[in-house]
Sequence to fold (567 residues):
Amino acid sequence: MKKIILILYVVITVHLSSGKCISDEISYQGRITQNDEVGGLFAGINGFFKFAIVDSTGKTTHWSNDLSSTEGGEPNTSVLVPFPEKNGVFQVSLGGVQMNPLDPSVFNQAETYLRIWFSPDGEEFDLLSPDEKISTVAYSFHSRVAETVVDGSLGLSKLSNDFSGMTVVSGDANDLKLKAMGFARFGQISSQPWILANPDGEPDPVLGHSSVSISSTLDGIVWGGSPVDGFYSDMGWAYDSNADRWSQISPVDAPSPRSNHTGVAHGDQMVIWGGLGPQGDGSEVKHLNDGGIYSLTKNKWTRISPNNKVVTARRGHTASVMSNKMLVWGGRNEFNIIGDGGVYDFEENKWETVSGQNPPSARARHTASVFEDRLVIIWGGESDGGFLQDGFAYNVENGVWAKLTSETEGPQARAGHTAIMVNGQLVIWGGVGKNGLIGDGYIFSFNPESTNFVEQGKEVSGKWSKLPSLGQPSPRIGHSVEWTGSEMIIYGGETDLGETNTGHAYDTMKKMWRSLTTKGGAIPRTLHTSEWTGSQLIIFGGIANRIRKSNTQILDPQGTWHLYRKL
Fold:
């Protein structure tokens, strides 16, 4: 292994939450370099770290990332940390995601040091030296007062002059509250730029493809699509962000070439169904009503045979998986827009008719979202009569439909919008309506009791609330949406000015929008696909200026942190 050196930045800060209490995290930043290579830069996209806080002798462990370290020894498990600019610079929150929390008692010691182990591949780890002494500024708050105050009672306004030099983090570049308390802004930790994934083995530029994330070790499988007009693909590629590597999945027994199909996850399987594909000698295009199931663990396909008596060929439909079944609904064929669907039972490997009275009217370009793994929520879309603004819930186990009703005014009619389920609430955004592109969003809060319907003629009630307009994305269609666990991310799409490379994150707790960076060369695109790895947003494919795109790009969407020091 090449010799690894750690170059430290003096950025160790306490995090405050809303000015009310201190979190159990310390922000730490540094750089990994290799001293036997020209320039010494470590060019990997990710690295594996182990952290421990030890005493001045290095023989007593006060904390480690997995709490397994004893007597200053190496922890058992590691933490994956990205190098956004592929230059060895990293930033990590000690005690944050992927780690055990930092207990305030850790900092009651006279002196504490941070010990770090590093590996580029997660196999053999180097102990980096020397250990870094943690400044008392970072933990003086804990050691002096944490044991003497009532939980949640101490805010920034209670700090005495003894805390001169204390550093806190804010998302506001002009935090008037902090300034009024005697803090001055002295720097920032900038948001990370977009980076390109390794292009080796990357899929060809395609449009009308699908992507799904079906494993904690693989961040997305891209399948099918159209590489050029009139041609269709039946190839698939898997991307592993840990290794920054593409690999081709088995083509044996894969579904026929197609685009505009649906791709959904079912456990460790990817399910492909429907779409458009070549007919016969390829001179004509036909709608499809077959598909396939790809098993990641077996690297093997199983065909889904067509059943014209249950579900007909189509595109522009939705597919949703819940309760070990897949509901296909709506869409269009070469003749008209469709108002029916089918249920595929994975255990029985067969299609079932969608039963129930008063189903949704015929529609395409609608959305389908899964509520608590038991209901599918169909909303909006377009029909032969125009755009739609109604919604329906389908209980797949009991085979009954219920109409969505709201005590408040809901979204305007639209199609081509996005919908995502967030903490048991339905959030829709964007799309197109009778007056053009739409740039607003709504969140539907369900009445829990109404979701337990098992009979016909029931309603699922709730309330629509409009998302704030301040800072929201411009009107668009063909964008993507992901949920990070705390924010909804809208990215790309087509605006009135053409394809865009802008993105926005909506914090559902703060009820605030913020814009994402475009640094690093974010590529304008629409009709792309996206996946969320747990810490990074991955964008693939799409089109801009009539040119199909590949160019897989990755973003850590953490916003800029502004550093304030108490004078």
